Amino acid sequence: MHVLHVASEVYPYSRSGGLGDVLGALPAEQARLGAEVTVLSPWYAALAGTPQEVWRGDMPGVGPARVGELRAGGVRFVFLGLPAFDRPGLYHPDDVERFCTFGRAARPVLEALDLRPDVLHGHDWQAGLVVAHAHLAGWRTAFTIHNLQYQGRWNLPEARAWTGLPEWAFSSEGIEFHGDLNLMKAGLTFADAVTTVSPTYAQEITTPEYGEGLDGLLVRLTLEGRLSGILNGLDQDRWNPATDPDIVPFRDPAGKAPNGERLRAEFGLDAAPILGVVSRLADQKGMDLLLMALPELVREWNVVLLGGGDPLLTAALTGWDHHPRVAFVSGMNEPLAHRIYAGADAFAMPSRFEPCGLSQMIALRYGTLPIVRATGGLVDTVPGDVGFLFGDATPQALTAACAEACRVLEDRADWEARMTRGMELDFGWESPARHYLELYGGLSAGRPAAPR
């Protein structure tokens, strides 16, 4: 089977978060299982790699284009270079237009390269238009929602000409959404199968609370048997406490202590337990809840927080940096993230919603017990006899869960038994990769090209 993944980023060549991590791991695992796997992504000016140019030409309605290739881990990486992506960084305010250009150019370029996969698998809204054009050409398609909150919307009268889609597509049964073009909806509407990155999130997004206005369509997809949840995996070679070069390596709870000592020394912390946080600073991640809970948390915990994002949250957390039990580092720093995962006693994720989440899987692998809100992938990955789950998205509920963790921590045998169970959990990519291959095998190319 030849699988073509399409995404806006892929680790280690381009990455801003979890999407890039998934595209760095899932294709390689599918290749290991015997599939022929290609990944298509933009050729950014700041791409961390030097593709070999294999094609150059002019695309009608798009302009000059070029294609470069790299091969790694049994995967063929194809990078599509367009003028819209010849600038620093990955994402910009005009991304809807940029990824419409990418979406229009993708299939003709693939055909010019004689690349016709058995299944085209698009990821998140940036690939929605690629999925639409592939489906119209009769290709079998799958589409994965990594975060439904981000949908690629733009005023439809202006954006209509960007897409290259037939006129009938611009309806409420197509890609129109409250007067806007919606590229997430394009992927949902045209894909033969739609997945989310955890089973619980697949259920949650069919409700008004989590559906971001698309819950009606998602209910229909569920009834048609086209929506399911496949839990993300974790790159267990990259996140391995026994071989991690950024920490004091360890294989069991008894070997974890030196990392806690190093983290205390690094930030001048006292003997209280350490609560770690590595997160985007965003309302989705519940960082405002953590901020409001801090006055209570520091009574029992040292809090070490690494993250960047919302400038108001950044400023508010910076104001806590003088506190002897709070260490806040703004931005992202991967070696420090590894030290926090390894050195903290517990790890907080008070997310309002969480499609899957990788941080809690990493924390479990490093013997750091997660304290998480019971939502999305957090429900699917944190067992109740290992971590601590709470229901309400409030600072009070977070504080109560942290207090419970502190009480359990007093029983060292119980705590270390939880650590052992967490470190033994298998979050590898083999099972998700097999699930996706089974999904592809069941797809039919017979669905009508036009939504009815």
TrEMBL record:
Alphabetical list of InterPro entries matching this protein: GS/SS, Starch_synth_cat_dom
Listed name of the protein: Glycogen synthase
Source organism: Deinococcus terrestris
Membership in a protein family: Belongs to the glycosyltransferase 1 family. Bacterial/plant glycogen synthase subfamily.
Molecular function GO terms recorded: alpha-1,4-glucan glucosyltransferase (ADP-glucose donor) activity; alpha-1,4-glucan glucosyltransferase (UDP-glucose donor) activity
EC number: 2.4.1.21
Domain Starch synthase catalytic: 2-218
Cited Gene3D superfamilies: Glycogen Phosphorylase B
